[in-house]
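Usage

Read records sequentially. Each one opens with the input sequence:
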Amino acid sequence: MQRIRIRHVTEYIFSRPVTLNQHQLLLRPREGHDVRIESSQLEISPEYIIKWYRDVFDNSLAVVNFLKPADRLNIASTVVIQHYEDSPLNFSVEEYALNYPFVYKEGERTDLAAYQQSVFIHDQPAIVSWLNDIGLRTRSMETLELQSMLNQAIHSQFRYQMREEAGVQSPEQTLRIGSGSCRDYATLFIEACRCLGLASRFVSGYLHAPATEIGNASTHAWAEVYLPGRGWQGFDPTVGELTGNRHIAVAVARNPEAIPPVSGSFIGPGPTMPTMLVNVQVNLLDRLL
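and closes with the structure output:
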């Protein structure tokens, strides 16, 4: 078990007071048998009213309504978790799904169908061509070998480029320019899996690494594929590995553009563009005695 503290601060600075419309926050890690929240603190200014609920993907979503205008919006989340996923390779896949291609069992097909449908439909020819080039549509192979090869292909063939723009690049654009952010890598991985008939989804969260111990980091993104007998298994093409106790999932969705950590709008006089500051720090803590 590892204890990890995540400090995530988002700040918007306006040149003059504005009216802040409703904001939605996806900052609370997903709990389960492998992750437990030990403590959680959320600090927000200006004055606000908050409501929590579970969205359609079972993400923990905070809806915030502000009570007065302000020239600064500050959202600071501090969470300590206990992470029990120590060995990401210690799992098995049901026998019928050991080798690709395979067909999901009838009882799972209806629920997984949405995760097999492409979001970037017009990009499919470019993705299929690329999959042919790297040899992932030309022969049968072990399912985990297929996933690992896809993960490594994206990791090694493309240049990582941090982007501050909202949303994700289309897979066709990532293939064309040869670079992208973690969000873009995950999107390409997901859409490639869907072209191969595999159910996959987008994950937003945090990564513990030496750089995040210092701070001034950002959120992270990766992909999950549904593997019978294992369930949703994470693959991180940005770092080229299966996800484990370094990865802390916050939200999942079928559409990569559906789960930004902070979303909302404001009303202000004239053209008012805020300055946005984001600081993420992920620290490994001592174990409890």
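Summary fields computed downstream for this record:
- The radius of gyration is 20 Å.
- The chain has a mean pLDDT of 94.
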